[in-house]
Amino acid sequence: MIGPEGEMLGIMQTRDAFLYARERELDLVEVNPKAHPPVCKVMDFGKYKYEEKKKQAEARKRQTIVELKEIKIRPKTDDHDMEFKLKHIRRFLEEGDKVKITCRFRGREITHPETAQKQLDYIAERIQDIGSVETTARMEGRTMTLVLAPKVSKAQMMAKKRQQEQSKGGKAGKGEAQVEREELAPLTDQDDDDWDDEDEAEGGDAPPAAPAS
Question: Are 73 and 150 in a shared domain?
C-alpha cells in the first residue's frame, strides 16, 4: 500500500487498508490490480479527478489534427473558376491543412493528360509562397491527383494563435480533438474499458480505480 504522500506502507489486510484511509478522511484507490498483491494508494480521489480533467483540457489545447481537404477540377475548368478554387486552396494551406487536387477526366479527355498536368503545375506555382508539393501529380484511374502541404505546420499555427489569444485574454484550443482516458472503476469493501465541378472542398501507468464507497 502507498500512503497519501507517496510513502510505502507495506502489505496490509484489505480491512486494515480501508480503516487507515477512512481515519484520514481519504479514499483507498486500487492503482495496479494486476500486481500480486494488488497495489492501492490512499488519496483524495475528488482532487485526483479534478487534476486529471485539467490535464485533459491542457492536452486538448496542445493537440492538433491536420486534415486533407480536396479540391476538384476538370481539364476544361476555365480561368475564373480556377482562380476561385485557388482561393480555397490558399485558405486551407494557411489554416495548416493539406490539400488534394483531383482532376477528373471524362470521355476522350483522358487522351490528353498534359492538359491536367499544366493545370496542376499552375496551381503548384501559385501557392509556392505558402505551400509545397508533397505528392507529385500522378494518374489514378480516370483522375490525376496532386497533394500540397503547408510550409508551416498546423501545430505551429495553433501555437501562434494561442499566444495571440492569450495576449488578448481569450481562450484558446476550442474545437480541437479530445483526448480520451479510461474511466476509473470503484473499489468496495467486498472486493478482495458523381462528382460536381462546383464542389469546393470536402474534404505509463494505468489510471487508478475509483475509491471505496
Answer: yes
